[in-house]
Write a structure and sequence with these properties.
With about 160 residues, the protein is an alpha+beta fold. It has one domain: 2-Layer Sandwich (Alpha-D-Glucose-1,6-Bisphosphate, Chain A, domain 4), CATH 3.30.530. The chain has a 7-stranded antiparallel β-sheet. β2 and β3 form a beta hairpin. α1 packs across α3.
């Protein structure tokens, strides 16, 4: 079972951070490692999205290898929480939660992934690969990119 948490401090108001993160369909515009995000369905604020990214490889120039999944995204603006449930692809069943909280000097962004592989005999190996090759790399890169974006927006006089 994976229960992984990544946290970063952002020198920007939580509202700005949440607005950037919650605009998932614009992620490829802001995040060079995202190939696309396509809306498949929308029911109010709840959206089903096909998402694709590049998983870079250490020491290699270029984009690395492609990964793709389908997720249901549910924003909770009042709580500044964004929840993803992976419903398609190699991480089907993964639950992801972005939680943005104020600290008086900006925002803490916590990104939590929970996942249990459905392959009992291979679960330990599969979960290790998902955590260390997918979550730590792609999610960590995404978190650092949103930190830069939110802080740069403040430096440019954005909201």
């Amino acid at each position: 079972m994976i229960d992984s948490t990544l946290t970063i401090h952002v020198d920007a108001p939580p509202e700005r951070v949440f607005a950037l993160v919650a605009d998932v369909e614009q992620w490829p515009r802001h995040l060079p490692h995202y190939r696309w995000v396509r809306r498949l369905r929308a029911e109010g604020a709840r959206r089903t999205l096909e998402m694709a990214a590049w998983r870079g490889l250490p020491g290699l120039r270029g984009r690395g290898y492609p990964v793709r999944w389908t997720a249901v995204v549910e924003p909770d603006p009042a709580a500044k929480v964004l929840r993803f449930t992976h419903i398609g692809g190699p991480t089907t069943g993964m639950a992801v939660e972005w939680r943005i909280s104020a600290d008086g000097h900006g925002a803490w962004v916590t990104l939590r992934h929970r996942f249990r592989a459905r392959l009992p005999l291979l679960a330990p190996l599969y979960e290790w690969v998902v955590e260390h090759m997918f979550i730590e790399h792609i999610a960590g890169r995404t978190l650092r990119a949103f930190k830069r974006l939110a802080e740069a927006a403040g430096a440019e006089g954005g909201p």
